[in-house]
Amino acid sequence: MSDVKTSKDSMKSFAETWDQQVRHLWPEAYPESLSNELKKLNVSSILDCAGGTGYPAIELKQMGWDISYSDGSELLNTFFKNRIETLHLDIPTYQSRWENLTQNIPKTYDALMCSGNSFISINSYDNDASFTKTVVKQNMQQAVNEFYKMLNANGVLYIDMFNESYAFPKQPFSISSESDTHRIFTTVNYDSVRNARTTLTTTSSLHDDSEEHMITKLTPIHTEELIEFLKEAGFSRVEFAATDDADYVDSFFAFKD
């Protein structure tokens, strides 16, 4: 059974709503601040390998960046392709899990992006058998190894994830947000014994009062664990990124010197 208790229609609705909400969760200045930091690093080409609904890849493309998109979800790939077609943008698009990027994407890049707190969701949409500490960490290491291989010499990986207090909450908490068409209500619970962070999201339509529910499980990691994965893959140094991020994430640059 999937860890996401939902239908394709529900996923599509959630994708549409999330596409609206993510721009409210991240500061308005985020794409520009990220662009400025990448310019300082002499980056020319970018792969957003956690592309999702297209934020901030679309915004970076509109700034003039040479950017490609990939995501492991067929649904999100379709959503993204429809979005860039509407916007008349030409962005190379690939479908690939992180663990096999080099098998599915034919070139390397100056920079890779794994943003939106995507990394710790690596096994969230797989079956329960894959959601064990050993398997998750093996897949995380394999993914980071692929990130490294997809970079040109002197390339850089941009990656973010929940900060410590948000990743490992001591008490359950709830958050809510609203767009012109939907309301999203999320409850979060962390099981310290299983190291499992469970999120229940209810998406309510403001037009017809319908509701859809989605449950996801994440395996949060500490900053030290992320740095260990990065160093094991071959990255020579890791630094905090000075980007204008969402309040609940920390972001990093990892360098392939």
UniProtKB/TrEMBL annotation:
InterPro entries: Gly/Sar_N_MeTrfase, SAM-dependent_MTases_sf. Keywords: Methyltransferase, S-adenosyl-L-methionine, Transferase. The keyword Transferase applies. One of its GO terms (cellular component) is cytosol. Signal peptide: none annotated. One of its GO terms (biological process) is sarcosine metabolic process. This is Methyltransferase domain-containing protein. CDD domains: AdoMet_MTases (cd02440). GO terms for molecular function: glycine binding; glycine N-methyltransferase activity; identical protein binding; S-adenosyl-L-methionine binding. It comes from Leucothrix arctica.
